[in-house]
Design goal:
5-stranded parallel beta sheet; Rossmann fold; 2 domains; 406 residues
Length: 406
């Protein structure tokens, strides 16, 4: 999810840094656009450091000195790539320009160029807030479908007391995600997700592994963040970066993954095991590199069944969801695992299908629960993460725990 944060000139501009942090904690990518007046209150470098991206401060490059074709149409590219435009603080000046279609800087031009949802959080002197012109401008913006996060009432920087104080950053972020249709139904819930493969060493340079990329688990962690959860991600070796705000734990072997899962599972109300944990590991690991001139025979032993152990040690009120990478009958294989491992649901996908599953950005499968199944047609892994978490929320709300009765 990509959110552009517009920062306009007012004493509350410093609070925009906290808004950036909260958006990132919910898994959103943030790009900042600043008006010239905003730069008098807080420097662009602050937002560049927080977001890791260039801050847009003018229409044609730095003070016009870097003007080129790319910068002159940048507002079109930004407008097309974002999921929402959030302006906080939104001054009376910016609100008036939005209402009357005035586009004389990057932020106001971006507003006219985008079809994405727009959220504004006004902040100003109480008299400016109550002025008929401001109220008429707000009425116009509301009629156009813009979400207005009402300012608070209290002591203002000008010394007056009244309406006009910027809403709390948490409320602004909550309103933004609500406008985007992202429910906060996992607020107050700790979600533990496992992802990626495990590598089981043969000698100091070789290992037994699998093709898991970790993309499904990382997508679940990101979507859970957006829905308000505290997320713990235990990941095997991957090339992915976890979303900002995730408690990230890196592991390599099945034994290490088991250790971290068992350590963190007691704190989690929802556990989703997407990791492709190796079923077997070499019984003995050579301390030196095995030379290729020798014939190699390995003796394997089973690794711990982490999901089954979680099912046997399930805590009251905890929801457990496992994954099954199958190459045959999805539902039949998932039902067997559902009963054997005493969990609430198994998400099964056919890894033999071309272009889906391991390494791909797309997936398809089925969620098998006690009493019913949910088909998951081909879709992106981000969308599948949304579907899986919706099913998890439903499981938690119904309180059905058939697995524990087996």
């Amino acid at each position: 999810m990509r959110i552009v944060l517009g920062v306009s000139g007012g004493i509350a501009a410093y609070k925009a840094a906290e808004i950036v942090r909260l958006l990132q904690e919910r898994g959103a990518g943030v790009r900042v656009v600043m008006t010239a007046a905003a730069q008098e209150f807080i420097r662009p470098l602050t937002f560049a450091a927080l977001t890791g991206e260039k801050v847009i401060t003018s229409m044609f490059g730095e003070a016009g000195r870097e003007a080129n074709v790319e910068s002159s149409v940048e507002h079109i590219g930004v407008a097309q790539s974002m999921d929402a435009l959030l302006v906080a603080p939104a001054t009376a000046d910016v609100l008036a320009k939005f209402a009357h279609g005035i586009a004389n800087d990057f932020l106001t031009t971006l507003y006219l160029a985008t079809s994405a949802p727009v959220i504004v959080a006004p902040a100003m002197n109480v008299n400016m807030w109550e002025h008929v012109a401001t109220q008429q401008n707000l009425a116009t913006l509301r009629e156009r479908g813009i979400t207005v996060v009402e300012p608070g009432v209290g002591y203002l920087a000008c010394g007056m007391v009244g309406a006009g104080r910027l809403a709390e950053p948490e409320d602004i972020v909550a309103a933004t995600f609500a406008r985007l249709g992202v429910s906060q139904d996992l607020a107050g819930t700790t979600v533990l997700v496992t992802a990626g493969p495990t590598f089981e060493p043969v000698d100091p340079v070789r290992y037994i592994g699998n093709h898991s990329s970790g993309k499904m688990g990382y997508a679940l962690a990101q979507v859970a963040l957006r829905r308000g959860a505290r997320v713990i991600l235990v990941s095997g070796p991957t090339a992915l970066q976890p979303a900002s705000g995730v408690k990230f734990i890196s592991v390599t072997t099945a034994a290490e993954m088991r250790e971290q899962v068992m350590l963190n599972a007691p704190d989690a109300q929802l556990v989703i095991m997407t990791a492709a944990v190796a079923d077997y590991r070499p019984r003995a690991v050579s301390g030196e590199k095995i030379r290729r001139e020798h014939a190699l025979t390995l003796d394997f032993e089973p690794t711990p069944d982490i999901l089954a152990e979680l099912g046997a040690r399930r805590l009251p009120g905890q929801t457990l969801i496992g994954f099954a990478a199958e190459t045959g009958s999805l539902v039949e294989g998932a039902r067997k695992k559902l009963a054997a491992k005493k969990v609430d649901a198994i998400v099964a996908n056919d890894v033999s299908l071309p272009g889906l599953g391991f390494g791909s950005d797309r997936n398809a499968g089925v969620i098998v629960m006690h009493g019913r199944t949910i088909e998951l047609p081909e879709m992106s892994k981000q969308e599948m993460a949304v579907r899986i978490l919706a099913a998890a929320v439903e499981l938690r709300s119904t309180g059905v725990r058939e697995a524990t009765k087996a």
